Amino acid sequence: MEVKETDLGKEVKAPMLPCDINSFQNAKRRLTASQCFAVLSDNLIKQKVTAETKMSFQIILGSASMARRKILAEMGYEFTILTADIDEKSIRMDKPEELVMVLAEAKADAIISRLQSTSQPDEDAHATLLITADTVVVYEGIIREKPSSKEEAWNFIKGYFHIIPEEIIDSLIEEGITLDVAGGLMLEHPLISPFVEAVVGTTDTVMGLPKELTEKLIHEALQLL
Question: Which residues are known to be catalytic?
Answer without folding.
Answer: 134
